[in-house]
């Protein structure tokens, strides 16, 4: 099976976690694109979706799924999203597509985070995938210096602007054995909007697709 077929398998398995009659939290990325396509098949059984990016919003609307503004919503039963890496404690690196800030906001108001991944995303230690950091443009050099002091090598994502009008620094060379501490530490750097570690609020369920099938793993 190709990696894309595995992503699709994980995405379709997430339909079992969608609560009928509810508004579904929807992430961003190539795995989530398969989920959106799958969700279209049950659009008459959900109220609609809250989206984490302009790209996901467009795809949801193209399928006739109503997209609600998160600000008017107190709580969502389920948020479905992919990850760039996920460790054994269900902490994740996200933001490879640059959607990390809105993803973290939608995840924060969701009762359950269902992570959909192909098996290549599961790692022992986070950090081989460069950690994305969304940064206010005027703070770029300051934030980069602070990240170097933490032992990372930040590189500007050239030619990329987030949905919020900010920049992304991708931090190479980190070995993240304590993701909760690093997430909180990076959040304290002035000028950082969001960092791509989802550890304080990690995934609750992981649907991990391998050639043998989709394995469901629950957070302890
Ligand atoms: O900003 C993008 C998101 O965090 C994605 O969830 C992540 O990059 C995984 O994307 P994909 O499903 O395309 O591998």
UniProtKB/TrEMBL annotation:
Q: Which top EC class applies here?
A: isomerase
Supply the alphabetized keyword list: Isomerase
Question: What EC numbers are recorded for this enzyme?
Answer: 5.3.1.6
Any GO CC annotation of this UniProt entry: cytosol
Q: Which GO terms describe its molecular function?
A: ribose-5-phosphate isomerase activity
**Gene3D superfamilies xref list:** 3.30.70.260, 3.40.50.1360
Domain of life here? Bacteria
Q: Which residues bind substrate?
A: 28-31, 81-84, 94-97, 121
Which biological processes are named by the entry's GO terms?
D-ribose metabolic process; pentose-phosphate shunt, non-oxidative branch
Q: Where is the active site?
A: 103
Identify the pathway: Carbohydrate degradation; pentose phosphate pathway; D-ribose 5-phosphate from D-ribulose 5-phosphate (non-oxidative stage): step 1/1
Q: Which InterPro entries match?
A: NagB/RpiA_transferase-like, Ribose5P_isomerase_typA_subgr, Ribose5P_isomerase_type_A
What is its quaternary makeup? Homodimer.
Q: What does this protein do?
A: Catalyzes the reversible conversion of ribose-5-phosphate to ribulose 5-phosphate.
State the family named in the UniProt similarity comment for this chain.
Belongs to the ribose 5-phosphate isomerase family.
Stated name of the protein: Ribose-5-phosphate isomerase A
